[in-house]
Design brief:
heterotrimer, A alpha+beta, B alpha+beta, C alpha+beta, B: Uridine Diphospho-n-acetylenolpyruvylglucosamine Reductase, domain 2, Uridine Diphospho-n-acetylenolpyruvylglucosamine Reductase, domain 3, Enolase-like, domain 1, five-stranded antiparallel sheet, C: alpha+beta, Aldehyde Oxidoreductase, domain 3, Aldehyde Oxidoreductase, domain 4, five-stranded mixed sheet, binds flavin-adenine dinucleotide, binds FE2/S2 (inorganic) cluster
Chain lengths: 198, 284, 820
């Protein structure tokens, strides 16, 4: 039986395909551990109460709100964060062959690790651009970008689990996330592009 | 961020789970069975509860079971709401749990957690009450299997150290015509103002509610009245309101008056479904 | 020009935002940081009798506990009325009363909870109406003694009036006698929240030699520097404020709050780096909100519908501290009639203290509230006149040659073209007079519309600047003080700059984070003024670059500077375009084939400051408070179920005069985003407060405070009118806030029409509509009626049985049993 009785314990997490050892309290939530211990700050806190979806990551293929998961619960499971999209191997299955490349190439070349300071941080990681990322850029499906990682993870899981999802299913998956900047019309469009439907 | 510390364990069998629970309790630790954790984490974060140990049930195979056996659909207590909805094993239940929280949360929230939670709606219970479901409860002295009604009185009445191992739904109910509506005050993604689940069994309505009162319930008296064709629809509606087990809830989420309006409209709709079904039945 | 104007250029930081690389304030490593957590007041109004820190300080890992007494200094952008932590009196539920600093967040949270505070509850006021009563409890006893950072705001000692702006024009007696039809109505909008998805966060650290570094999610880094300098007597040059990406602001991150707290926290622990992140509950209850508004509108018109007179009173619910509220009152006064010509006008606009969370700017600076009142009144007037509401708006639309309320002469440049917007809206919506359309036995469809206008109300001397440097590949770096928070303003500036320099947009790199020591001063990233004031600075910097390149190019190419053309990153003489110098060979200074050094590296600089603005005359309001207006017309179509008053918004339309549509997709996104926020706000958002004597907020989490989710949005249809604003770069008008403005009014108008019942307050939740329509108890909050004492608590609002209120307050939602 797996047991963590100490105030602090070392656990191994599988994140974006890599095994990572971290020291945590059993009461630590996955969101905080990803951000503070592993530096994976793509998942964002927006409420820490399960309501906003900004913290969404993928666990064993399904979207979960990492603010409502204990880090120790993730032991033995595969976690994927936005940082794992594209280059690190997480690939959204997509029916559109063009979405990945067209938006990527229209916006200049790779420029990895640019952070905020880049003017033309146009390129994502020098590797592969995931169709969901390309679709979000193409559809202007974000403004401030704070909700974006969460939406991307839901969409990525959706494309893999339910590539034939009907409109109402897409809607019910995306209802898990809040965006205050866009009108959602752009997000819908991005999903259509991702699924090769527009 | 949860400020307090607690121990965590993940047993692989029901017996281990009970042992772990008892072990912690014996060591003086306030212990919680842990399903999806959605409620435990959010309440611990704000300090409403201060668990000292949690026993995670999600990797006990029996708790994750979903299969048909002897005329029953057996559902493990740690099944996620999404797994239940996606399986289509009991469409009405799938509908009801598919409206709890949101899709991503449904990937974590468990059936047992919803039934045993503190949040007053426990919407998964409605179809189960209508379908005469049974529950298997695992406790220190073994497993007891009994009708859900006997242990659900607005909330689960479990003995110390007990948890929901499985829920058993008689198969024949799973395929009966049903009706489900959930109305929240404004947002779709919200707690219900009123949530209604109904099954039409041989031209008779079975009906259960959450939201309208401070706990979920199925009322046989109300079913009697609603099925009483000797009364007009309006009389039946009035009677249904009279037979509520308590006055409609009145709180910051939704006022009593508006809840009642929704209740009447929704029950009215259910009666229309009933008459449609019986017409179809008569025609057949 | 380079031809980048009108293209759908993607925002500069697009890839950073889809890869998780974009860094927001709390995304930097936390190693070596202490964490601060707040303890907030559970009471709306209470005297702090005593505070006992002993238990908190005894927890292992706790470094300090600060209370209001430690830092009694007052701060504020206009009136210095707010201490960083409540001192002696807490004026709203949620106000910080203590802050614990510890080695980690968990310890800090335990320590904050262990601070024991003894309160004496004081009577509180929750609406402007209560606050305006002669014997009302005073939220501030000493308004008269507060320092001022602005002189024109007129707080009234011994009252709850924190600011006042009158407008007087024409002759009211004449106006009323010319009016054959009049209407009078009161309106009420409760406070609500910006609800940026990123909660407010800040970090601070102070070096041994006194250098202060603040990293913060702020729209106003230069204001942070100013307030910390002034409030705590730190030389401004010792303060460095860094702002990385901001996860949405909407005006809510223009105030200075978390920065003050982080600063004193660091100061208390000998300058160690301290991190403070408000949780969502604090972000909703402690941090400033959107202001509520109460209004009484009286309009008079001829029987043809021409407006003759308007008597308008507005009471802005400023909450417990003024922040920028007085200028919102000023903005309401300046635009008080909506975009209509009214020659006889009497308007009083008040800012009123209440024991609500203090309020600040929120997308459109109260224009969505003002517009709600005016545009509902216009529909009521149309109804009384039996006139098409669209036509009524058309005949009264303000346009060139008319005077505004504060007596500015309108021109097409400063007003744009509202009639053109209305006409276009009429076509788009297929606007029809007549009753709602019956869809089924129980459902109807109806449309409602609203017009709007808005001018910015910046300080009359608000500054901006741009600094441009080059890279060896000939590309350039644009530095401004503008914050990237989603509005893509920097990307728009880059687009203008590329066009001006005749280069392609991807040659412009934008420095997206702000560092107050590197970037030129920019007032605040607010009020959609960026394209105007920062745009002017960028244009000047571009001119500066062009002049330098012409001079150097002339020398290098042996021609006159006037002959030099600059296009496609090349410098050449007009008469000989085949001989050119690439940017990369000249921007770092030129070396000719003989090795001669010609010119020097190019650096562009440009600054700007508003010109021609004035304070409003304290008696008549005469004066010019903003550079120009943006006008528009919007509509929504609803389908309503008359059985339970639930509804769907099917379509939302907007036509806006943006001057120049320089980036159609990007700008459309801003407009739709604004419309979405307006729809969400009007249909479901409001703060409510428990009526239990404590007055805590009953909506302190996203479980109880609802915002629009996907699936509830309408189909958006947009169009634009382009009447250039002659003094603005590329003629482009402010537009990034404006999508919100007409939405609440248009929705209320549509629902009122669908139902045949006048809905004159927000929010428009089905339950509220049901109450109004059936007269079932009063609506959620009492109406404003300053002269007559108006009913107290409304029936339905008595809701929130204590246990549930406490559960909500705890943020986890609605659980059984009390949550402490
Ligand atoms: C965003 C959000 C929205 C929500 N909206 C709704 C809604 O609309 N309708 C609704 O009904 N609910 C709603 N909920 C409540 C949600 O259903 C509860 O959080 C859920 O019931 C808890 O399930 P869990 O598996 O996460 O339980 P946990 O948090 O793990 O546990 C909850 C409680 O159940 C006990 N428990 C868990 N599993 C078992 C078991 N097998 N046997 C015995 N006891 C057990 C635990 O000890 C604990 O007391 C919402 C929750 C969230 C986060
Ligand atoms: S932070 Fe997890 S859902 Fe909001
Ligand atoms: S882009 Fe800002 S919240 Fe979605």
């Amino acid at each position: 039986m797996m047991e963590y009785n100490e105030e602090r314990c070392v656990i191994e997490l599988q994140v974006n395909g890599l095994a990572r050892q971290v020291m945590v309290r059993p009461a630590d939530i996955l969101l905080d551990v990803l951000r503070q211990e592993l530096g994976l700050t793509g998942a964002k806190p927006g409420c820490k109460n399960g309501d906003c979806g900004a913290c969404t990551v993928i666990m064993d293929g399904w979207p979960v709100k990492s603010c409502l998961v204990l880090a120790v619960e993730a032991v033995g499971h595969q976690i994927m964060t936005v940082e794992g999209l594209g280059a690190s191997g997480g690939k959204t299955s997509s029916k559109s062959s063009s979405a990945g490349t067209s938006a990527g190439s229209s916006s200049g070349n790779a420029d990895s690790g640019t952070g905020n300071g880049s003017g033309n941080g146009n390129g994502a990681d020098s590797g592969y651009i995931d169709p969901v990322q390309a679709a979000f850029v193409q559809a202007n499906a974000f403004q401030c970008g704070y909700c974006t990682s969460g939406f991307l993870m839901v969409c990525h899981a959706l494309a893999n689990q339910k590539p034939d999802a009907e409109e109402y299913e897409i809607e019910s998956w995306l209802e898990s996330n809040l965006c205050r900047c866009t009108s959602y019309q752009e997000v819908r469009q991005a999903v259509d592009i991702m699924l090769g439907r527009s | 961020m949860i400020p307090v510390n607690f121990a965590y364990c993940r047993p692989g069998t029901p017996e281990e789970a009970v042992q772990a629970y008892e072990g912690y309790e014996k060591a003086g630790k306030k212990t919680w069975y842990y399903g999806g954790g959605s409620e435990i984490i959010s309440m611990a974060r704000v300090g409403s509860i201060t668990p000292e140990a949690v026993v995670d049930l999600k990797e006990i195979p029996a708790c994750c079971e979903l299969k048909e056996e002897g005329g029953h659909i057996n559902m493990g207590g740690a099944l996620s709401l999404r797994a239940i909805a996606d399986s289509q094993c009991f469409p009405l239940l799938g509908k009801a749990v598919g409206r709890i929280a949101d899709h991503t949360n449904q990937c974590r929230i468990t059936l047992g957690g919803n039934l045993c939670g503190t949040i007053i709606y426990r919407e998964a219970v409605l179809p189960l009450l209508l379908a005469e479901a049974q529950v298997s409860l695992q406790g220190p002295s073994g497993v007891r299997r009994l009708p859900l009604q006997e242990v659900f009185d607005g909330r689960m009445q479990l003995l110390p150290g007990e948890f929901i191992l499985k829920v058993h739904v008689p198969k024949r109910y799973a395929s009966m015509p049903y009706f489900h509506v959930k109305k929240a005050p404004t947002e779709k993604i919200d707690y219900p103002a009123v949530s209604l689940a109904a099954i039409i069994e041989k031209g008779r309505l079975r009906i259960a509610f959450a939201g309208i009162c401070t706990y979920p319930f199925r009322s046989k008296e109300m079913e009697e009245a609603l099925n009483d064709t000797g009364m007009t629809i309006e009389q039946r509606l009035n009677k249904a309101v009279e037979l509520l087990p308590e006055e409609p809830a009145d709180d910051a989420h939704c006022s009593r008056g508006y809840r009642q309006l929704l209740f009447e409209n929704m029950v009215g709709q259910a009666l229309m479904e009933l008459s449609k079904a019986s017409e179809a039945g008569a025609g057949a | 020009m380079g031809g980048t104007i009108g293209l759908n250029v993607k925002r500069k930081e697009a890839w950073a935002k889809v890869t998780g690389q974009a860094k927001y304030t709390d995304d930097f490593p936390t190693v070596g940081h202490y964490t601060a957590r707040l303890l907030t007041s559970p009471y709306a109004h209470a005297r702090i009798i005593s505070i006992d820190k002993t238990d908190a300080l005894s927890i292992k890992g706790v470094k300090a506990v600060i209370t209001g007494e430690d830092y009694p200094n007052f701060c504020g952008p206009l009136l210095l009325d707010r201490p960083a932590i409540a001192n002696q009196i807490a004026r709203y539920a949620g106000e910080p009363v203590a802050m614990a600093i510890a080695v980690d967040e968990a310890t800090a949270a335990l320590a904050a909870a262990a601070v024991k505070v003894e309160y004496e509850v004081l009577p509180a006021v929750f609406t402007p109406q209560e606050a305006m009563k002669p014997a009302a409890p005073l939220v501030h006893e000493n308004i008269g003694k507060y320092g001022h950072a602005a002189e024109d705001i007129n707080p009234r000692p011994n009252s709850n009036i924190s600011s006042y702006f009158p407008v007087r024009k024409g002759n009211m007696t004449e106006g009323w006698s010319n009016s054959q039809v009049t209407i009078e109505q009161e309106f009420f909008l409760p406070p609500s929240d910006h609800l940026a998805m990123e909660v407010r966060a800040a970090r601070a650290e102070i070096s041994k030699d006194g250098m202060v570094t603040i990293t913060t999610s702020s729209q106003a880094p230069f204001e942070v520097r100013k307030q910390i300098a002034e409030c705590f007597q730190v030389p401004a040059g010792n303060i460095r404020v860094l702002v990385p990406f901001v996860g949405g602001g909407f005006g809510g991150k223009a105030p200075v709050m978390q920065e003050l707290l982080a600063y004193i926290a660091s100061r208390e622990v000998a300058g160690k780096p301290v991190r403070l992140v408000m949780d969502r509950k604090e972000d909703l209850t402690a941090a400033p909100s959107r202001a509520g508004l109460s209004a009484r509108i009286k309009l008079g018109a001829t029987k043809e519908g021409l407006l003759q007179a308007a008597e308008l009173t507005f009471w802005l619910d400023n909450g417990a501290y003024t922040d920028i509220g007085p200028y919102m009152v000023k903005a309401i006064a300046a635009d008080c009639t909506g975009p209509y010509r009214v020659d006889n006008l009497h308007c009083d606009a008040y800012g009123v203290y209440t024991n609500h969370t203090y309020a600040t700017s929120c997308r459109s600076f109260s224009h969505e509230s003002l517009t709600f009142c005016i545009e509902r009144a216009m529909d009521l007037l149309a109804e009384k006149l039996a006139m098409d509401p669209l036509k009524l708006r058309m005949v009264n639309a303000i346009t060139a040659g008319h005077y505004t309320p504060t007596q500015v002469l309108g021109t097409f440049s400063n007003l744009g073209n509202l009639p053109a917007c209305i006409s276009r809206l009429q076509e788009m919506t297929d606007w029809q007079e007549g009753p709602p359309v019956q869809i089924t036995a129980d459902t109807v469809r109806a449309k409602g519309m609203a017009c709007f206008w808005k001018a910015a109300t910046p300080p009359t001397n608000a500054p901006s600047g741009a600094l441009i440097t080059f890279n060896p590949d000939g590309s350039l770096n644009l530095n401004t003080g503008v914050v990237e928070m989603g509005s893509a303003s920097q990307s728009h500036l880059a687009q203008m700059l590329a066009d001006k320099l005749g280069i392609s947009d991807d040659q412009v790199h934008v420095v997206l984070e702000v560092d107050t020591r590197l970037n030129p001063v920019h007032y605040k990233t607010v009020a959609s003024i960026t394209s105007y004031i920062a745009g002017r600075a960028v244009m000047r910097a571009a001119e500066d670059i062009l002049a330098q390149l012409r001079k150097m190019g002339a020398e290098a190419l042996s021609c006159f500077p006037e002959d030099i053309e600059i296009k496609q990153s090349r410098v050449y003489a007009r008469q000989n375009p085949d001989i050119y110098i690439e940017f990369k060979d000249i921007v770092m200074g030129y070396k000719d084939v003989f090795g001669n050094s010609i010119g020097e590296p190019v650096v562009g600089r440009g600054t700007s400051m508003f010109k021609g603005l004035s304070n409003l005359n304290p008696k008549t309001g005469k004066g010019q408070s903003g550079p120009a207006w943006t006008v528009g017309a919007q509509a929504v179509e609803v389908e309503m179920d008359l059985r339970d008053y639930t509804y769907r918004i099917i379509h939302a339309y907007s036509v806006m005069d943006v001057g120049n549509l320089i980036n159609p997709e990007g700008m459309s996104g801003s407009v739709r985003g604004g419309m979405s926020m307006g729809i969400s706000m009007a249909s479901r958002e409001n703060f409510s407060y428990a009526k239990n004597g404590r007055g805590e907020m009953t909506t302190p989490s996203l479980r109880s405070y609802k915002a629009l989710h996907i699936g509830e949005e309408p189909i958006y249809e947009l169009d634009f009118v382009e009447t250039p604003q002659l003094d603005a770069p590329y003629g482009m008008r402010s537009m990034s806030e404006h999508g919100i403005i007409g939405m609440p009014a248009a929705l209320a108008n549509a629902l009122s029409k669908a139902c045949g019942v006048a809905f004159n307050q927000l929010p428009l939740k089905p339950e509220d509509l049901w109450r109004t329509a059936t007269g079932t108890g009063a609506v959620a909050e009492p109406m404003m009626a300053p002269d007559a004492a108006v009913a107290g608590a409304a029936a339905g609002d008595a809701a929130g049985a204590d246990a549930s209120a406490a559960a909500f307050a705890a943020g986890a939602g609605f659980a059984e049993g009390g949550i402490q």
